[in-house]
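Worked problem 6 (solution included).
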Amino acid sequence: MECSNDHSSSKPTPMFLPSQSSSNTMDLCGSLFCVDVHSSDNRFDPCAAAGCDIAAFTGGLCPRPCPPFSYTYGGGALVLGYLARDSITLHGSIHGIDPLSPVEFPGFSFGCVGSSIREPIGIAGFGKGTLSLPSQLGFLGKGFSHCFLGFRFARNPNVTSPLVMGDLALPAATDGFLFTPMLRSVTYPNFYYIGLEGVSLLGDG
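Solution. The predicted structure is:
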């Protein structure tokens, strides 16, 4: 998410102003989210980079914020920012109660991005990692459904790309639906994999 404390910004897309949110905080260096965004195999690395002494970060008592991060995407895209936490509100329901009521998720962790190269700011992650949207909202085990539309509809306000998470993502009646189990990769645990048993072209396997 693009963040700024400049109230006079004239950018066409809205930005998040951390100073205007009473619930906004910087994530701490010892959080699992900080370790994840820094892709560290050693959970003490972020707090060491933040300047904590060894007794503080090994005891989980370092109060310093998560160091700034850089994140690369395919094609050489790059974003720079820091990790923050705030409450987000989504339209939905919990256990089917009041389906149209807003549901608040406090302590949601996200990247406050200040600059980027060849990457649009405001990307929501849907992988299996701790920082992804369905993972933080508790929907990763229940499932989610997203209709991906072609790029030609990107600037058409009359065409939407529906996103459904949780119990509503799976229809009550499964007639006509086929499911396949996901596989797990030790090397890339945050990605999704399915097993391929064969390829058929025009009926010829």
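Discussion: The beta strands are 25-26, 69-72, 78-91, 102-117, 144-146, 163-165, 182-183, 193-194.
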